[in-house]
Amino acid sequence: MPAQVDNNGMFIQGMTQPDELIKYIKARFPENEIQQAYAQMVDASKALGKDEKITPLRAFWKLLEQTYQKKAPPLQCGQGCAHCCYTGVTLTQMEWDGILNRVEEKGIDLDEIIERSQRTIKKVLEVLKSKRNIEQIDWHNLVVNQPCPFLGEDQACMVYEDRPLDCRLVVAYRDVCQSKKLEHAQRGVVVEEAIGSTVIAKLQHDQTPKFKRRKFHGTQPLRLFQHWLILWQDKKSGKKKK
Ligand code: SF4
Question: Model-level pTM?
Answer without folding.
Answer: 0.85
